[in-house]
Amino acid sequence: MNILVTANQTPFLPGGAHYHVQGLVGALRRFGYRAELLTLPFHYAEAQIEQQMAFAEQLNVTAPNDVTIDRVISLQFPSYGVSHPEHSVWLMHQHRICYELYDPEQASPALKALKPQVEAYDRRHLGNAKHLFANSPRVAERLQHNTGLSAEPLYHPPYRAEHFTCADDWGYVYYPSRLEPLKRQALLIEALAQTRTPVKLLLSGEGSQRAQLQALIEQHSLSDRVRLLGHISEQEKLTLYAHALAVAFPTFDEDYGYVTLEAMLAAKPVITCTDSGGPLAFVEPGATGWVAEPHPQALAQALDEAYADRTRAKRLGQQGRAAYQALNISWHHVVSRLMQTP
User: What phi-psi label fits residue 286: left (phi over 0), alpha (psi between -120 and 50 degrees) or beta?
Assistant: First the structure.
């Protein structure tokens, strides 16, 4: 059976989406399908998005070059606009700037004109999908709110899930992510400034907020307790997870959130926020971590509690790993659901 996976390509901007796409293609091949990936170029400029939607809509991928495609699985906007009679969508997220991140007071005229076009595009193509899945309950909730369409949440494992291990904690909280406003590293640094314990914070990743975060660290005289590690290798990331006291993930309205699942695989409790979106499907307060209000004082309390009772933090982490295992998060399950007979 020939399976075509459609997604976007943003050169030199790697991230979780890349692992998601490549993970699916690899899993389909491992389970005996002939799978190919069709990536469409993506640019965030409003005028470019209009062109990209129009280009995707004109693509009939039923039999390109006279090679029959038996099924299409689309993951991203606007690639789910391609045409095929057996078309499933496993939605990573919609074009968020036209939905939950849209601010009418700040939106440019171009964005205001684009928003109804994107909404119509989504209703047209997501509504016509043979099967509609979402990569998390939060993405499914947004889709229902935005379009009235229902999608089945379908979880997948993080990259190299089998390599995560747990070791003795070294007294720090770890947060790996891009340094961008929605990831809210600044909120976590503000929280650390209010802690009563000597808990430390390690941040890995690069992004537009690095200079601002460094300035904030210096402003609060936290240079001895907070480190910006920048880009690190996968092996270094695994080591940092293994020796963490806890893992912080106070992001704003995350789609899915590999960090949560990686922490659970490493048997580390997660500190997240009430408005963090995707992580809330996995983090149970008092059982697998902490869910704090998105304020420095509340996060500081969670950080202090983790440090002050490290035996409890260890137990919450172990319960988190058990919870992950109980969810049957595997590529085998993903492929089985995506390839179900209509």
Answer: left
- Summarize pLDDT for 45-72 with one digit per residue, the tens: 999 999 999 999 999 999 998 999 999 9
d(CA 146, CA 208) in angstroms, rounded, equals: 29
pLDDT over 70, % of the chain: 98
Is the dihedral angle over the CA atoms 212, 233, 241, 170 positive or is it negative?
negative
φ/ψ (deg, to 5) at 229: -85, -15
Say whether both 30 and 133 belong to one domain. Answer: yes
Residue 342 pLDDT level (bands cut at 50, 70, 90) = very low
How many angstroms separate the CA atoms of 273 and 282, rounded? 12
Beta bridge partners of 3: 35, 71
CA distance 178 to 186: 12
The domain tally of the chain equals 2
* Alpha helices, DSSP H, located in 101-136: 109-127
Cβ within 8 Å of residue 192, ≥6 positions away: 199, 201, 220, 222, 225, 226, 300, 303
Q: What is the pLDDT of residue 16?
A: 77
- Asked if residue 242 and residue 148 are part of one domain, the reply reads no
144-185 confidence digits (pLDDT tens): 999 999 999 999 999 999 999 999 999 999 999 999 999 999
Count of beta carbons in the 10 Å neighbourhood of residue 132: 20
Q: Which domain range does residue 213 map to?
A: 161-326
Q: Based on the domain organization, do 65 and 183 belong to the same domain?
A: no
Q: Tokens 């968020």 label which residue?
A: 96
CATH assignment at residue 71:
3.40.50.2000
Q: Torsions phi, psi of 36, nearest 5?
A: -130, 155
Q: At 67, give phi and psi (nearest 5°).
A: -100, 120
Give yes or no: residues 264 and 116 share one domain.
Answer: no
